[in-house]
């Protein structure tokens, strides 16, 4: 059998590469050092990319090639002090920054681990045990692609590491089971993991426009929009409250007419969809999307035709 490779994170300045030989020709199983790769101060957490295990990411958000002679190929800031935990996904590196082992860390947010919830089969959900707040924070992605807190679970003092596995769920047959280690009290909490709260439906009116009549549009009509519509095709705009046009935007703001004879309507989605321009059609009874800019403008709230 081919010897196994083990990469070792440490409280030194290096990552170590070991070889574990399961079937040595002579003697017992062997474990030996193949390489020592200097990284920097305390590279204490390590993981690999889910679809390219030659990319190794360690606790200070640095990336290496996996080989017996590993080398650092990229470095980036972790966004805080003392990164102690990381989660590597296909397109993201999610880092929890430690604040040190002292009493102060118990009175402020102190993320101790970041994991994906394998029990949530409907959407990606992050779980972040917080040793300072004594909570496990639950995060999901908003329509703009950013992670946002959507709930939490309270614990007694000292929540440290959380384990949720489908195997546990199937073995106990009691639903979603969570095992949480409470670091300061030396306890293991076992409970049924609650489902995420349903997102509130906050469908509300958003904008109302009454464009001046002109040669192209001699009649006057009111245009209204809503926001936070849970429909998959986003919020709507309705001329005279009829012929609703789905915008594909989330939380519509800043709807303004412009162009020759106010022929065009620019609209923004604060929480997703970017900026879109619609053309008035059918005399004024309809709206047709003609162009959009999704990623280059963040959280648009207002427009001025200039």
Features:
mainly beta, elongated, four-stranded antiparallel sheet, 306 residues
The helix-strand sequence is EEEEEEEEEEEEEEHEEEEEEEEEE
DSSP strand count: 24
Backbone shape: elongated
**Percent of residues in beta strands:** over 45%
Helical content stands at: under 10%
Global Rg: 27 Å
Mean pLDDT: 75
> N-to-C terminal Cα separation, in Å?
72 Å
Query: Tally the helices: what do you get?
Result: 1
* Poorly predicted ranges: 61-69, 165-175
Strand arrangement across the biggest beta sheet: 4-5-6-7
Biggest beta-sheet profile:
4 strands, antiparallel
Overall structural class, as computed from helix and strand content, comes to mainly beta
Structural notes for this entry:
With about 300 residues, the protein is mainly β. Helix content is about 0%, strand content about 45%. It is elongated and about 95 Å long. About 5% of the residues have low confidence.
């Amino acid at each position: 059998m081919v010897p196994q490779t083990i990469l070792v994170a440490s409280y030194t300045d290096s990552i170590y590469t070991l070889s574990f030989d399961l079937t040595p020709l002579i003697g017992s199983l062997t474990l030996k050092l193949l390489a020592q790769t200097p990284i920097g101060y305390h590279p204490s957490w390590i993981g690999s990319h889910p679809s390219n295990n030659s990319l190794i990411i360690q606790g200070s958000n640095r990336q290496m090639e996996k080989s017996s002679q590993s080398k650092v190929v990229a470095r980036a800031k972790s966004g805080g002090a003392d990164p102690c935990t990381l989660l590597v996904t296909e397109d993201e590196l999610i880092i929890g920054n430690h604040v040190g082992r002292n009493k102060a860390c118990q009175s402020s947010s102190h993320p101790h681990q970041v994991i994906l919830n394998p029990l949530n089969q409907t959407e990606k959900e992050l779980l972040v045990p917080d040793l300072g707040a004594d909570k496990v924070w639950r995060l999901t992605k908003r329509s703009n692609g950013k992670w946002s807190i959507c709930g939490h679970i309270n614990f007694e003092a000292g929540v440290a590491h959380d384990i949720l596995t489908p195997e546990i769920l199937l073995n106990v047959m009691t639903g979603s089971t969570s095992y949480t280690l409470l670091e300061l009290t030396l306890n293991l909490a076992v409970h049924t993991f609650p489902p995420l709260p349903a997102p509130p439906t906050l469908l509300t009116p958003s904008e109302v426009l009454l464009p001046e009549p002109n040669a192209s549009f001699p009649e006057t009509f009111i245009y209204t929009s809503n926001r936070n519509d849970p429909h998959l095709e986003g919020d709507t705009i309705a001329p005279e409250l009829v012929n609703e046009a789905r915008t594909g935007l989330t939380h519509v703001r800043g709807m303004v007419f412009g162009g020759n004879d106010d022929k065009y309507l620019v609209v923004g989605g604060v929480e997703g969809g970017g900026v879109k321009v619609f053309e008035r059609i059918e005399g004024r009874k309809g709206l047709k999307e003609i162009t959009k800019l999704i990623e280059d403008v963040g959280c648009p709230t207002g427009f001025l035709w200039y």
